[in-house]
Automatic annotation (TrEMBL):
It holds the Pfam family BPD_transp_1. It is a multi-pass membrane protein. The lineage of its organism: Bacteria, Bacillati, Actinomycetota, Actinomycetes, Mycobacteriales. PANTHER family: ABC TRANSPORTER PERMEASE PROTEIN MJ0413-RELATED, ALKANE SULFONATE ABC TRANSPORTER-RELATED, MEMBRANE SUBUNIT. It comes from Rhodococcus rhodnii LMG 5362. Belongs to the binding-protein-dependent transport system permease family. Residues 65-247 form the ABC transmembrane type-1 domain. The chain crosses the membrane at residues 14-32, 72-93, 113-143, 183-208, 228-250. This is ABC transporter.
Length: 263
């Protein structure tokens, strides 16, 4: 096997990916139907696919999907603003970096979902604590990428700006932050997928039965609805793939020029 071969064309990548998914589903179907593995609750692919079909016409479910997407977008927006601002300041000013380095390192390793119950106690149940839980998970890739992007700003551009009389804050807002945008967007792209996972997880843990996580939790209480539970989980996964794909397209279109700089 040649591990250093040229990348496959996009259409072949998609074809092989689909073939892998279908092949895995067929093997699972045969194994579970044959009774080789006989354990109640395991998902039989054909039944789960039927569950996906049922969800397609379920207005209640799509209302919960809309709730999750709103929660995710609000959390990602909060994380983007906080991450770009604080990351930019930490990258540009040594005193700010020293002041926030320890808090960032401490909070970065804490699982945001574990902080969710505290947010519910402080803010009550609803969209806000869920979105803040998402924001706490999403902010770190954005902050760190922005920080490194600001620190990597071309020194000649900074020196030229100083020669023209620009102050530190003007250099940050006019030169360093704009030059760090491709790095920041990479952080946003990574955080977008993380945020959707955390959104569903937070709904399972601290939600009030709302969102995709709440829908899964409510239906999992009834053993006869397990196919629907698996189907809802698959829909959440497909949403994650779609989000990642959209951000990848935007990244490649808007910041295509950064690849030339990296070469």
């Amino acid at each position: 096997m040649n591990l250093h071969s040229e990348p496959l064309p996009r259409n072949k990548q998609i074809a092989y990916g689909v073939a892998g998914v279908v092949g895995t589903a067929l093997v699972a179907e045969l194994v579970l139907r044959s009774g080789v593995i006989d354990k109640p609750g395991l998902p039989i692919p054909s039944r789960v696919l039927g569950g996906v079909g049922s969800l397609a016409g379920d207005g209640t479910f799509w209302g919960e999907v809309a709730f999750t997407l709103q929660e995710w977008m609000l959390g990602l927006a909060i994380a983007t603003v906080a991450g770009v601002v604080l990351g930019g300041l930490m990258g540009a000013f040594t005193k700010v970096f020293v002041a926030f380095e320890l808090p960032v390192e401490v909070f970065r390793v804490l699982p945001s979902v574990a902080i969710g119950p505290i947010l519910v106690l402080l803010l009550g149940a609803g969209m806000l604590p869920l979105s803040l839980t998402v924001a706490l998970a999403c902010v770190w890739p954005i902050l760190l990428n922005t920080l490194y992007g600001v620190r990597g700003t071309d020194a000649t551009a900074v020196q030229t700006a100083r020669t023209l009389g620009l102050g530190s804050l003007a250099i940050l807002t006019r030169i360093k932050i704009p030059s760090a945008l491709p790095f920041a967007f990479t952080g946003i792209r990574v955080s977008a997928s993380i945020g959707l996972i955390v959104a569903v997880s937070a709904e399972l843990l601290i939600g009030g039965g709302e969102g995709i996580g709440g829908y899964i939790l409510v239906n999992s209480a009834n053993a006869t609805n397990l196919d629907i539970v698996y189907a809802a989980t698959i829909v959440a996964g497909v949403l994650g793939v779609a989000v990642s794909g959209v951000f990848a397209v935007v990244d490649n279109k808007v910041f295509a020029w950064k690849k030339g700089l990296a070469q």
